[in-house]
Design a protein that fits this description.
globular, five-stranded parallel sheet, four-stranded antiparallel sheet, Alpha-Beta Plaits, alpha/beta, Rossmann fold, 6-phosphogluconate dehydrogenase C-terminal fold
């Protein structure tokens, strides 16, 4: 018996994320070709075995574009022109690139993962284990492309969430971009005051150190992000400034009841951040016939994100008696009725069965 052909992938950009993708794919049996604008980085990746070959493999099943956000659009265009397989990217701003490349072989993406280390030196095969990886399909995205990219990314250990490009940019401004700017501002305040009080930075441990850790990121990356996602970042900054102004007024008048309520609400929200479903007996299988319209499979994922439903597994199977597909989704059983109701409201006809 002949063995199955080895799967092949490209990675453009061999920094922390690109290098980690390459290692994660190799660990799962893929052959990975890589490219990087920096020749020393490319050679280092080859010498260390992070990639198997240099340049782009035209017949690769998928190409990951992992370059700085201002270069993503051009490299996606290149990947679509020079390869025949699927293409996705990992940039943290999605609107511009997704709207520029409404192509059936492309779906945008953004892994919410990082490391204390920069560049190829920080690359690790398990970087995406339990990390959220956002896919940002358009209304016209090809269902087969979305399902295949989702399957490959899920195989790397990530939890896939689907959002529209614009919704992604709004949300990531709140949970990533503005926190970074806030951390940088706090670090700047502490540094300026430390010139007057030498002991200050020695006291800056614990919560302060945790809160400002992201300020150690590369400045050039964040300059590009702020340029590409300016509108969403300004909106989120306006909200933060308004919230800080309100809490300042509460502190100023010693309104302990309001302050306690604000702090308690924040504590509860932090405690209730969603976690990954890990016990099969807590899951329900939802089978959803896919209507004959573009983007229907991606719409299922997008709805799950809107309803706060965690998808533990997703695949599209095809019925032998027709050309239609069925999305088979595993979710937390406690959210199955909410998800079912949302699907029905969108015109789907789901069936739900508990695995327990």
């Amino acid at each position: 018996m002949s063995s199955a052909p080895q799967r092949r992938a490209n990675v453009i950009g061999l920094g922390l994320i690109g290098g980690s993708i390459a290692l994660a794919l190799q660990e799962r049996g893929w052959t990975v070709s890589g490219d990087d604008a920096r020749e020393p980085t490319l050679m280092a990746a080859l010498e260390r075995g992070v990639i198997d070959a240099t340049g782009l493999d035209q017949q690769a099943e998928i190409t990951f574009v992992a370059v700085p956000v201002l270069a993503v659009a051009d490299q996606v265009k290149r990947a679509l022109a020079e390869t025949t397989g699927l293409v996705t990217d990992v940039g943290s701003v999605k609107g511009p690139v997704c709207r520029a490349h409404d192509n059936r072989r492309f779906v945008g993406g953004h892994p919410m993962a990082g490391s204390e280390f920069d560049g190829l030196d920080g690359a690790q095969a398990d970087l995406f284990n339990s990390a959220v990886w956002v896919l940002t399909p358009l209304e016209t995205s090809d269902d087969a492309t979305f399902a295949q990219v989702n399957s490959i990314i899920a195989s790397l250990g990530a939890d896939v969430v689907a959002l529209s490009p614009e919704r992604h940019d709004q949300l990531v401004a709140v949970v990533s971009h503005v926190p970074h700017l806030t951390a940088a501002t706090l670090m700047g305040m502490a540094s300026e005051r430390a010139e007057e009080h030498a002991a200050l930075l020695r006291l800056a441990a614990g919560g302060f150190r945790d809160m400002t850790r992201v300020a150690s990121g590369q400045p050039d990356i964040w300059i590009d992000i702020c340029s590409e996602n300016k509108v969403a970042i300004m909106s989120a900054l306006d909200g933060l400034i308004a919230g800080l102004s309100e809490i300042r007024d509460v502190v100023a008048v010693d309104d302990h009841d309001v302050l306690r309520a604000r702090l308690q609400a924040a504590r509860e929200a932090r405690t209730n951040l969603p976690s990954r479903v890990v016990r099969p007996e807590d899951l329900a299988e939802v089978r959803i016939p896919i209507p004959d319209r573009a983007g229907a499979a991606a719409e299922v994922f997008t709805l799950a994100a809107e309803l706060g439903v965690n998808i533990a597994n997703f695949e599209v199977v095809h019925l032998a008696e027709s050309n239609r597909g069925v999305a088979v989704v595993l979710i937390d059983e406690t959210t199955s009725e909410v998800f079912r109701g949302g699907l029905i409201a969108r015109g789907f006809r789901p069936s739900v069965q508990a695995l327990s």
